[in-house]
Model the fold of this input.
Amino acid sequence: MEKSEENPSYLRDVIFPGIRDRNTILFLGAGASVGTKRFLGQQIIDLYSDKLGIRLTVNNLVDFVDQLSANPDIFDRDDFDTWVTETFSEKLKPTETHSAIVRMNWREIITTNFDLLIERAYDQIVGTRDHLLKIKVIRNWDSYRYYPANDEIKYVKLSGCVSNKDKYPLVFSSKDFHSAGRFYKIVLSSLENLSPQINFLAMGYSFTDPFSKMLLDKFDSYNFRRKKWMISVDPFIQDEQLPFFRDNQIAVIKMTCDEFIGEYVDWENSQDKVFYNLKRIKYSDVEKKIISVPPDLALRLGDNFVQLSDYYKSAYVEPKDFYKGETPNFEIVKKDYDVVKRKLVDEIKDEARRLLNENNALVPILLLTGSYGIGKSTLCYRLIRELLLDMPSKYLGFEIINASKINSIDIGELLSKSRAKNIIIFFNGIDVDSIFKSLLDFRNKLSIEQYTEFRILLLASIRDNILTKYKLNKELLNALEINVDIPFNRDEAAELIEKLSDSGLISYRDAKQKNILVDKVINKFSGDSFITLISLISSSHHANTLIDAYNQLTKDAQKAFLFTSLFYRFHILTPVSLLQKMISKNWEDFRRDILEYDSKNILVQEIIDATGTEPDLYFRTKHPIVSQKLVELLLPNEDKRFDTYQALLKRLNYNTYNAGLVIDLLRAIENSEDLTTKKINKLYDVCGSEFAGDPHFTLHYAINLQHRNNEADLKVAIEKVQYVESVLETRNHFLIHRRAVLNFMMAKLKYQQEIELSDTYIYINEARALFEIKTVLDPFSAYSYVDYIKLEVWCYEKIVLDNENRIQQYVKIEELFDKAEKSVFENSHWIANMRADFIKNVKNKFAKSDGEYLSFLDEIYQKESLRPYAIILKYYYYESVQENNKLEVLIRELEEYDYLNDVERLLFKHYGRNLFVTDNRTKLFQLIQGNKDIEQQDPIRFHYYTYIAEAYNKNFQYSKEHIYTLKNKFYYLNPKLCETWIDNETREPRIFDAVITESRNHKIRVRVIDLQQEFNLRKSNYDMFDLSISSHHQVTLHFFLTGIRAEIIT
Done:
C-alpha cells in the first residue's frame, strides 16, 4: 500500500485521521533523527571502525558490538557508549520534524532511540499554544506501569537513554538485548490489548538497514501485532519488494520522515479544527447555560466525567430491550421507561438532601443496595433525574466513567463554574473490587479539597452480599446504605403491565385480562421486579429462551458469548484481545467472524475512551444477569467452571491492565464463593509465573499464599514480594506492609518450632523494621498500625524479657496506640477494639483499676533506669483521661532524659500538639536542629508541626513550603486531621477579624486583617452569612494537612 498516484487517498483517509484521533502508536527509529539514506547502524560501524583502525566484515551493529566485546585489548564498552553519545546525540539538534512529532496526537510513542531530541523538542513548546499534550518519558519497565492521563503521551525509550547511561544503559549487543528483554516484552505485549482500529506506524526504521530490520523483527517476535498491519514510512523500499511486505502485513509509505510529517501538517491545517477528536461533552450550569471549559481541562476530563442533563445523550435503548435486561443509562429515566416506586424514591431523596446538608469533613456516600437485577442502577439515575426536576436551580448531576483518569482539582475547577449548590456524582459498577476501591480513594481526594462553594454527594449501587464482603476489610465512614428490595404495589404493577404492553412484549385485550396480569405480579411474583420481567417476557421459560438464542449463534460467537459471560457475570468487561486469543483467530478472521457478525444483540461491543495501550474495545452481554444465567446453564459443574477459568487465565500475557483484570476476576470469584478455596489457590498459582513482576498482582498473590498458612508458601510469598521490591524504582508501602506481615507469621511459626529462638528473632526484627517503614510512608492508614501492634503485643506476651525490656516494650505498644488513635480516620474501630483487647488481656493482669495502674507506675518510677519510661506511661495515662494539667509537669521532668529515643519522640509530639505556646515552638525547632533524623523518621508530622510553628511565628512563606511538601509528597492524607489556632493567653480558639475577598478563580476567600494573609474557607454551611465581597466577619483558623482554612463564626 505504497503512497502513489494510483492511491492518493490512503494517507488522508486512513493514516492521517488515525493520528489526529489518537488511534496510532508510533514506533520511532533513528532514521527520524539522522535523515537521508544514512542508516545509523552502518554509520556507527564505519565511524567506530575508523576510530579503532580496524575493519570487521559485518554489517549488523549487534554482531559488530558482540565481536568487539570479546576483544578487551581494543574495545572498552564504556568508551563506546560515550563515543556514540557524543557523536550521535549531543551534536544533534531537534528539527522541524521533531517539533511536529511532539505536537501530534499519538496514542503512544515507542522508540529505540537513546538521544534527547524528542525531549528537547518538547521543552521548546512547553508553555506555548501548541502545548496541550504532555510527553511522559518512560525509560524502564517499572515506570511503564504508569497510567497516562487524557492529556499525556507515554514516550517509551526501550534502548536506554543518554540522560543517565548507568541507570538506563544503552542497548546494542546481544547481551544488552537479553538484559532489556523483560522491558521489551512488557511494552510490546501490552499492545495486544488494542483493537483493530488502532494503527501501528513505524517511522525512522528501514527494512534495507540490517539493524533496523533486526529491531522490527525483534518487535514481531513478541507477536504483539497478532497479524495486524504495520504501516512503515520507508522511502528506500524497491517496488519489487512490495509483495513480500504485503504478505507480511506491512503497508509501505514510500516517503521520507520529513515528507510524511510535512504532508500530515498540511493535511491537518486544511481540516476543520477538530480538537483532538474530543466529543467535547457539554457541561451546563444551573441555568442550563453552556459552561465554557478551557481546552486543556476538557482534554483532561475527556469522556470520564459526564453531566447527566438534557444535553447528554446516552446510547439509545429500545423500551423492549430495557425490559429484557439491557444495561440502563440516563436516557432510560429521561424517557420514563422505568416504573417509579414513588414512596421509595421520595425517601431516598429526603436522605440525599439530609446527607448534603450535614457538615462532615468526608464527602458523604449514598449506597443503594439490593439483590441481583432489581434495578439499582436505574434507581440511581431516577434519583438524580428527580432532584434535577424538583430543584433545577440547586442541583446538578454527573456520572464518573473512569475515576483514575480525573483529579479532584479539575473536578473542582469545572464545578465551581456551575454555580450549583448541590452536586450528585454517580459512581457506577462498584461491584468490581478495583472500582469500589477507586470510589473510596476518589472520595478522600474530594474531601481533602474542602469545597465550600458547593456540596457533593457520591451515589452508587451495589449488591448487598458484595457490600457485606467489602465491609469486612473496610469501614465506610459517612456512608448511608438504603436497601431498595421493595416490591411493587398495585399501582406500580399496573404501570409496569401497561409499559410492557406498549413495548409489544405482552398483550391483554381488556381491563379484566390486565387485572389478571397485575394480580400475578402482586401475588405470584410477590411484586418482585426481576422475577416479574423474566417470567412475563419469556413466559417462565427464560432458560429455554437464552439457550435458543445461544444456539442461533455460530460456534465462534457461542465461544465469545460464554467467555464474555464468565467475566460479565461479575460486571467485568472482556477486552477484545482476550476473546481473539481464546477463539484462536487472527485479527482479519476475528473481525469478520466476531466484530462484524450480527450477534442478535446478545453480545455488545463497548468502545472506551482509553489512552495509551489500555484496551479500547470490550465485549459484554446485555446484563450481568444474562451472563450469570448462561454460565449456570452451560457450566453447572464447578470443575468445568474451574477448567474454563484456568484456560482463560493461561491465555493472558503480562501487562499492567491484564494484571488488574486477573485480580478483579479472582477477587470476584472469591467474594461470590463460586469456587472452592483450593481451586482459587490454583488459579493464583496458574498466573503466578506470568505476572511475577507486577506489584499489584504480587500483593494479592502474597495475601493468598499467606492465608494458606504454611511455612513453604510463606517463604515463597516473601521471595516474590522481595523480587518485585528489588526492581521497583520507588518504595511501595503496600508490598512493604505485606512482607512485614509475612515475616511476622514466619516468626510465629518458628516460635512453635525453636527452643533458642534464633530464626524467630530474625523474622521479628525484619517485620519490625518493615512495619516502621510502613508507618512512615502511609501514616494515616489503619493497616500501618494494626499488624504492627499485633506484633508488639505478641512479643510482649510470648518473648521472655527482663523487667527493663518488658517496660520498654509496653511503652512501645502505648506509643503505637497513641499514633494510631490520632492518625487513623478509616477503620479506626479496629484500633479501638485492639486497645480494648490489650487492656483486657494484658494490662488487667497486673492492674485491674486505674489506681492499681498508677501504683504500678509509681513502683517502677523508683528505679532510676525505668524512671523515664514510667513518666512516659503516666503521660499517656493522664492524656487518655484528659487530665491535661498534669502533662506539663511530666514533660518538664522528661526533658531531662531527652537523649533517649523514646523520650525524644514523645517530646516531639507534645511540642507539636501544643504549638500555641511560644516556648514549645522554640523547643520544637531545637529538637529538630539537634536530630536531623526526625524528618526521615516521621516526615508527615515534621512538615505538619513545622508549618504550624512557622504560621504562629508569622513566617508564612516558610509555612507554605512545608504545606507544598505535604500536598505533593504524600498521596493519602487524612482530611479530618486538624488543629485549631489557639490563643496562648485564653487557651481558647483565637478569633480574628476578616474581610471577604475573591480569588482569581472566583473562589471565596477571607483576608485576616491582623495577619494580612488570605485563606480559603473551611467546609461548612455558610447559608446564614452574607458572603458578598468586602463584607466583614469574625473567623477562627484551622491547620489542615493541605493548609490553613478559615471558618466564619459571626
Q: What stands out?
A: Residues 1-6, 273-279 have pLDDT under 50 and may be disordered. Residues 992-1048 form a domain with the OB fold (Dihydrolipoamide Acetyltransferase, E2P) fold (CATH 2.40.50). The radius of gyration is 33 Å.
